[in-house]
Amino acid sequence: MTATKEALDGARRDLVAAVTNADGERVAELTERVGALASHQAMLEQTRIGAAQREAQAKHVYEETEQYFADAREVKKPAPPAPQQLTPEQWVAQFPRKTQAWLKAHPDYQIGGAKYDDLNSFATDWVGDYGQTTLHTPAFIEALDAQFDSDGSESEMTESEEEEKPQPQAKTAKAAKRATPAAPVSRGSGYFNSANLDAKKMRLPADVAEFVKSSGLNPESYAEGIRQDIIAGRKPKEWLDQGFDRQLG
Q: Where does 95-217 show beta strands of DSSP type E?
């Protein structure tokens, strides 16, 4: 098409020159040539348009064919079966022996139990604080006891302290009203308090246990530090007693 256009433009210039020079024979020759070139140019343009249309149609057919074979090659994978729900017994059996013993003694915390979400949330927080490898260790089992066995232990401790250190009735009622379940550091009787400064075992009141947990401290180390502070006189001897205003912040 480019060559034809250049030849047509040249023939037209020559025709103008021939007319100017009154060269009749040359004018007739060039007029015929210009007509032939113009016709050829029009034919080429129609061919170009037709080729473009056929190209677009071929591309459309190609894309449809590719999509057809792509759909044919695709393997329809069946949906994976829903995971089988473990029974409480199966769920407990996957853990180490000591964790199994704790869960068997606390069936409400097993999977499907009323308190399972509480246990799951506690374990998730524990892993976030201390790492996955500390799950099911003795420290973890002790923390479970401290977190979920505190209600019964607290009532026992409160009765023991009230027997060891009588208080005025009005003050006792106020302290009992403020008292909340404590998290034990260790189990047994004869716990360290203002009336029993020689005791080796210790139990943290609930507000202290909550402070230790939220601060990420070690309960045993913290309790021993408090013991030393009380014995050395750096803290009041009643600091661990129920109802004492410790002003923890």
A: 183-184, 203-204
Residues 129 and 154 in one domain: no
* Rounded-to-integer distance, Cα 206 and Cα 160, Å: 16
Cα separation, 143 vs 186, whole angstroms: 10
Taking residues 232-246, what's their average pLDDT? 86
The backbone torsions φ and ψ at residue 196, rounded to the nearest 5 degrees and listed phi first, read: -150, 65
Dist CA 9 CA 34 (whole Å): 9
Q: What is the pTM of this model?
A: 0.33
- Domain assignment present for residue 244? The answer is no
Looking at the chain, how many residues does it have? 249
pLDDT digits over 134-161, tens only? 999 999 998 898 888 754 333 333 333 3
Instruction: Tell whether 33 and 52 lie within a shared domain.
Output: yes
The closest of 160, 152, 219, 208 to 185, measured between CA atoms, is: 219
Neighbours of 225 (CB within 10 A): 14
- Asked if 134 and 154 sit in the same domain, the reply is no
Same structural domain, 216 and 160: yes
Strand stretches in the chain, DSSP E: 183-184, 203-204
Structural domain contains residue 114: yes
Q: What is the pLDDT of residue 31?
A: 94
Contact criterion met (CB below 8 Å) for 142 and 134: no
135 lies in which domain range? 88-148
Buried b (16+ CB within 10 A) or exposed e, 36-65: ebeeeeeeeeeeeeeeeeeeeeeeeeeeee
User: Is residue 238 situated within a structural domain?
Assistant: no
Quote the pLDDT of residue 191: 79
How many domains does the chain divide into?
Answer: 3
Distance CA 38, CA 5 (A): 8
